[in-house]
């Protein structure tokens, strides 16, 4: 328990020191692409005159000075499958970003999309000794949360207090200096598969980089794609990636639930490749240029020349109508949305005041997805583009970059977590987060 606490605090200190030196990198390691953004921290208002961009909510003290992407290799379902190939891809994208930025980075913060995330809601309560809540009281109530057995090989990724209550006054974001007799806390804990996380740590270390933090891709996608009102009133962010579709639920600007299903856009591409008997790369191109989910009478007459797509028109003179392509894609997308619906039902999403659903990620760009999702998930559905951050090229602001941009926002403005408070040594709970300490001890 103590090792977990100290390991996470060490990562937070490493991140803070890197930011003080002025440069840190964020890595979005996905199943279809790996993106790297190099951030420069110079304080608010440094770039307004040269960039022409004014300060925006929570992001005026950094800018992107280098950005690069590469095709993901050695990844499957958001987890590392072949260490050497993933290492080579990470080295390639980091070196490209460093070349654009003109600086070298030693510290990175990464996000993980797979690893079978699971959410837990915890609660704790203590008596306030001095009649007024202090920093030590906050640390004590967090340590008092009794955590169930997460299961063998599960590790804690996030442990965030989402609500405080002093006596009968609930809904407090920061209880410090409030007067009362009892302090209660609700905390959200997100666990992941420890082996998948350890593989990520090992791969980044093999790239001669220091890991200064790990975050859930579902969480950071929500930070980037949900506007302030949606985070406050209740919304779900659905990140349709290549190998994994992540779901995160927010209310009162805190993530209260996260999960993922191991189905993504790569399976749609595979269905097209098998259905049309074309190579995987050709199927991806056909999906991007001609794909859709809502067939009309015009689509029956719109023909796609498969030989033209393969560059072998003399040998392959086959054509397929766009309606037939939609017929291949739609069943798989419906399967993904059915899995998402089951996750939302398990999260209690229907009880939120505002049931807004935001689709993001590379798969969200399929034409007609918002219409289909509104029929299967609910009426309040929109496609979410991530917030704009200073210095980032317009080509890197598509929904597919939501995780990378959200990770940059989290790096600059991290939310309070359990290990940000000075935990009293005598208050380490007997069971809380006990099984997580070995992983942090071995990796940091």
Secondary-structure blueprint of this entry?
Layout: H1 2-21, E1 23-29, E2 33-41, H2 48-51, E3 62-71, E4 75-76, E5 79-80, H3 83-101, E6 107-112, E7 118-127, H4 135-143, E8 154-166, E9 169-172, E10 182-193, H5 194-206, E11 210-216, H6 217-225, H7 228-233, E12 235-240, E13 245-251, E14 254-261, H8 265-276, H9 280-290, H10 297-301, E15 303-305, H11 306-310, E16 319-321, H12 322-347, E17 356-360, H13 369-377, E18 381-383, H14 402-412, H15 437-443
Parallel strand pairs: 1-6, 6-11, 12-17, 17-18
Antiparallel strand pairs: 1-2, 2-3, 4-5, 7-10, 8-9, 8-10, 12-13, 13-14, 15-16
Task: Please name the defining characteristics of this protein.
444 residues; alpha+beta; five-stranded mixed beta sheet; 18 strands
Q: What is the residue-mean pLDDT, rounded to a whole number?
A: 82
Q: What is the strand arrangement across the widest sheet?
A: 3-2-1-6-11
Structural class: alpha+beta
Question: Low-confidence spans: pLDDT under 50, at least 5 residues?
Answer: 43-60, 426-444
Radius of gyration: 23 Å
Q: How many strands, which pairing sense, and closed or not: the largest β-sheet?
A: 5 strands, mixed
Distance between the termini: 14 Å
Number of helical elements: 15
Percent of residues in helical segments?
Answer: 25-40%
Give a count of the beta strands, DSSP E runs of length 2 or more: 18
Given the C-alpha coordinates, what overall shape results?
A: globular
Q: Strand percentage, roughly? A: 25-35%
């Amino acid at each position: 328990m103590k090792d977990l606490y100290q390991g996470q605090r060490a990562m937070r200190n490493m991140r803070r020191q890197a930011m003080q030196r002025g440069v840190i990198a964020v890595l979005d390691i996905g199943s279809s692409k790996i993106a790297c953004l190099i951030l420069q921290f110079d304080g608010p208002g440094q770039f307004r005159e040269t960039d022409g961009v004014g300060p925006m909510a929570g992001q005026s003290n950094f800018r992107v000075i280098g950005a690069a992407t590469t095709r993901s290799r050695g990844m499957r379902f958001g987890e590392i499958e072949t260490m050497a190939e993933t290492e080579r891809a990470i080295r390639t994208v980091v070196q490209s970003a460093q070349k654009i930025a003109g600086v070298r980075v030693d510290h990175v913060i990464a996000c993980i999309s797979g690893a079978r995330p699971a959410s837990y809601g915890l609660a704790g309560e203590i008596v306030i000794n001095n009649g007024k809540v202090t920093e030590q009281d906050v640390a004590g109530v967090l340590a008092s949360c009794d955590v169930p057995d997460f299961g063998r090989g599960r590790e804690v990724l996030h442990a965030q207090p989402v609500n405080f209550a002093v006596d009968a006054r609930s809904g407090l974001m920061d209880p410090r200096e409030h007067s009362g007799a009892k302090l209660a806390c609700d905390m959200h804990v997100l666990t992941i598969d420890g082996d998948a996380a350890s593989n990520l740590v090992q791969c980044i270390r093999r790239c001669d980089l220091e890991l200064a933090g790990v975050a859930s891709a579902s969480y950071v996608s929500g930070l980037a794609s949900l506007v302030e009102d949606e985070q406050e009133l209740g919304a779900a962010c659905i990140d349709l990636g290549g190998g994994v579709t992540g779901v995160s639920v927010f209310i009162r600007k805190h993530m209260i639930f996260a999960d993922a299903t191991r189905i993504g856009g790569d399976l749609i591409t595979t269905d097209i490749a098998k259905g049309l008997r074309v190579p995987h790369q050709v199927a991806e191109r056909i999906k991007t240029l001609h794909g859709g989910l809502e067939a009309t009478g015009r689509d029956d007459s719109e023909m796609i020349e498969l030989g033209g797509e393969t560059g072998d028109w003399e040998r392959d003179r086959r054509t397929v109508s766009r309606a037939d392509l939609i017929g291949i894609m739609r069943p798989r997308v419906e399967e993904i949305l059915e899995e998402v619906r089951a996750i939302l039902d398990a999260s209690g999403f229907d009880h939120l005041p505002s049931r807004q659903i935001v689709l993001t990620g590379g798969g969200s760009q399929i034409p007609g997805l918002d219409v289909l999702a509104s029929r299967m998930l609910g009426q309040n559905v929109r496609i979410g583009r991530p917030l704009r951050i200073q210095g980032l090229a317009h080509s890197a602001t598509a929904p597919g970059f939501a995780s990378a941009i959200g990770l940059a926002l989290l790096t600059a403005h991290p939310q309070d977590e359990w290990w940000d408070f000075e935990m009293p040594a005598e208050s380490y709970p007997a069971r809380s987060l006990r099984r997580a300490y070995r992983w942090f001890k071995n990796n940091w």
